[in-house]
Amino acid sequence: MGYRGSKSEIQRPQPKEISVKEQRVDGSWFLAKKARSLRYTLMGLERGYPVRFLSNQMVEKKNLFFSTQLNPYFVTGFCDAESSFQVLVTKNKNTRLGWTVRLFFTIGLHSRDLALLLRIKEFFGCGYIVKDDNKNVVSFRVTSLEDITKFIIPHFSTYKLSTQKAADFKLFLQVTELMKKKGHLTTEGLQEIINIKSSINLGLSDELKLNFINTVPVQRPTIQTRDIPDFNWISGFVSGEGNFFVDIFKSSSNKIGYQVKLRFSVTQHNRDKELLELIASYLGAGIVNIHSENAYVLKITKLVDLTTKIIPLFDKYSIQGIKFLDFLDFCEVAKIMSEGKHLTTEGLYLIRTIKDKMNMKRKID
What we know:
Blueprint (H helix, E strand, L loop, with lengths): L29 E2 L24 H9 L7 H11 E9 L7 E12 L3 H11 L3 E5 L4 E6 L2 H14 L6 H16 L6 H11 L8 H6 L19 H11 E9 L7 E12 L3 H11 L3 E6 L2 E6 L2 H14 L6 H16 L6 H11 L10
Antiparallel strand pairs: 1-4, 2-3, 3-5, 4-5, 6-7, 7-9, 8-9
Helix pairs in contact: 2-8, 4-5, 5-6, 10-11, 11-12
């Protein structure tokens, strides 16, 4: 989870390791105050941003950005990146079967993105916000079977997920239907839920494997996404998984001794390689290559593609959250480069200044 400022879930994979999001948010959680008393806003973060954009429309969006209503396709795209569908089965000596089944729909973010999380909560019209101050994490959770049935299931049934997370949703839906029929209160129904749970996310814990030795995992649904549903889905997905980088490296071919390159990228587990290729085709730019043993990355580095395709796309369909600030800096550097100023000592210094406050280096008051 960690910091979301242009982060990739798969940034520095260790040999034979990869982090696959399950979005578990553990720790000492407590219910936050009512939303109206959480007076968080990101508007103040934009001070110090002069007019830096490649279009007048971007200037207008800057002022309206945090007050606009979230598009449902954006929400699904963001959830493809950041959400999780969980089935928790825990021991409970007070129940007849000795076990309790609970459903969780969760989105966990860095605490600096609380404003975005509150907007998502408002969009769904249910759930609650919890936080872990020690880990600087905030989480939106929906755990009520009624709310999941009334709000969460209908949304994702209409605005469908495009990543392999859609398989988790389909299995999650099966458990929801069983619980609505009180199946979790019978021995047979509980075992059926365990069979389904074993194919969701990371599967069963060692404790559940030990206690349910007759488990037969259900077949995990095959997800084949053949088209991108809407540009807003892309802006939502990129708001969660996209990266905006400015690279500066030495170059003997340049008079000032350095070369500047912009890099937009999206990294995913190899099971979503075809989705990355589909996004590249949809954007008309970029190449999908191996990132690590278990991951692929879509990269777009050509300045002409960035300035004529990528920036105009996110000009119209806005990035949301803290990552929006990285996008603004990215736009500023693109403007500097388009004017050829990156080839001067002064321009290079300005770009370094911008780069040094992006992504992980961004300081939030």
